[in-house]
Design a protein that fits this description.
The structure is a single chain. It is built from 16 helices and 17 strands. The chain has 427 residues and is an alpha+beta fold. It is elongated. The relative contact order is 0.14.
């Protein structure tokens, strides 16, 4: 905890105001023999923030600032790879101990921690945990239990990095991808970069974990000028940046009252101000409405009971085994991208009428006929039922080797498919 105490002291000394306190637990990710000596149980540090129980601002207002920080303690760049270069410059060129940001740099995760969680770093043994022989496969070859959606996302992400990003340091890019946030738009008339988009690593704020149901608001107040790092280490004067941005601040606000029921929005606040015994409970923010495959890809975690989750489902179709039709299953039970499947199941009469009705078969209003829709839903329902069953074995396999991250990822996929299956069966 000394690292976090130093970070908080440094942040407050340089102008941050926050009612948050940092905590950390050690969480086991898997017990696979991933290291060369074959002896390690891979674990990750789960860092989170709680509300200081002595802070009473929330009792007086509908919203409270959980972060109020000068931009002088933030690393900022117009691009994510520029920010990665800036981070690496501070750590390796200036030196982690000599950098102005030394207390912050000391708290960042290690590359080994990212390797345990982020799929871009997984080795073959780790990917094998995600694979399973499917009862729906026409061969005995192994397939990915999630239909290959995570592997495809990783490959696309790697291709994008090769084409668009200049930073080649795995650790720095992982830090930026998993911890940076977009700066709010600059005030009118304030100096900013050309495309009006900045990425920032903000101490303490980057330790607030994700919950998609939490509503937060970020705002930025600016003085007359700001300077930004372009990614070229030779062009930056850190002391000048700190001086120029001293009056520029970023604020993260969170509602303390839910307008729907006039109750306190977060559990820590509810206990604190309703007379109950205060127990430390985590304070969250929302990173955005993202499915679990995106959260796992970019942040290295899975959101339990994610209302924003969606899963790609490959529908096996006679004559198309090499390229199955795909639909999207959502956590709320809805299914999307039904157009190609509807068209594939049309009979001759429906095909003749399709052009006359200007019906492309897409979307909820693209139903071709009652007969066609019943066949579509029957095929989807049967596929989902088999997939839900087929997920049992790989989930258990992941649990058997204590890979709780992959087990959770597959369990949440199973929940989403079950939600869609129940909705289809109820029709």
């Amino acid at each position: 905890m000394l690292l976090f105490d130093n970070l908080m002291s440094w942040s407050v000394e340089h102008g941050m105001k926050t009612p948050l306190q940092i905590r950390e637990n050690i969480v086991q990710i898997n017990n696979n023999n991933n290291n060369k000596d074959g002896t390690t149980a891979v674990a990750a540090n789960y860092r989170y923030v709680v509300l200081d129980p002595t802070h009473m601002e929330a009792k007086k207002r509908n919203t409270m600032n959980i972060i109020d920080a000068p931009l002088s303690i933030c690393m900022i760049s117009p691009t994510s790879d520029g920010l990665a270069d800036r981070l690496l410059f501070e750590k390796e060129v200036i030196g982690q101990e000599d950098s102005f940001f030394a207390p912050y740099l000391a708290t960042l995760p290690t590359l080994e921690s990212f390797q345990a969680t982020m799929p871009r770093f997984w080795n073959e043994e780790r990917w094998n945990i995600l694979s399973s022989t499917s009862s729906m496969s026409t061969s005995t070859s192994t397939v990915f239990a999630d239909g290959g959606q995570l592997k495809a996302a990783v490959e696309l992400d790697q291709e994008t990095r090769l084409n668009l990003l200049s930073s080649t340091d795995d650790w720095a890019q992982a830090v930026v991808d998993s911890r940076a946030h977009f700066m709010p738009p600059a005030a009118a008339g304030a100096a900013t970069n050309n495309n009006n988009q900045e990425y920032s690593l903000t101490p303490v704020l980057d330790m607030i974990n994700h919950n998609p149901t939490v509503s937060t608001r970020m705002q930025r107040t600016l003085s007359s000028s700001s300077s930004f790092f372009s990614g070229n280490a030779d062009d930056i004067d850190p002391d000048q940046q700190h001086q120029q941005q001293q009056e520029d601040r970023i604020q993260l606000q969170i509602p303390t009252i839910n307008n729907n029921n006039n109750d306190f929005f977060l559990a820590p606040l509810k206990n604190l101000f309703m007379g109950g015994q205060q127990e430390e409970q985590e304070v969250f923010t929302s990173y955005g409405n993202m499915p679990n495959v995106e959260l796992l890809l970019n942040y290295g975690f899975v959101q339990t009971d994610n209302p924003c989750n969606s899963e790609i489902v490959n529908i096996p179709f006679i004559g198309r085994q090499s390229s199955p039709l795909s639909i999207v299953a959502n956590a709320n039970g809805s299914v999307e991208n039904l157009g190609p499947l509807r068209k594939a199941l049309m009979n001759r009469q429906e095909l003749d009428l399709l052009d006359d009705n200007n019906n492309n078969g897409n979307g909820d209003n693209g139903i071709i006929s009652q007969r066609n829709e019943m066949e579509v839903m029957a095929l989807i329902g049967g596929t989902l039922e088999e997939m839900v069953y087929d997920l049992k074995a790989p989930i258990q396999n992941a649990l058997n080797v204590f890979d709780h991250l992959i087990a959770s990822y597959l369990q949440e996929r199973q929940k989403t498919l079950q939600s869609c299956l129940r909705k289809i069966q109820a029709q």
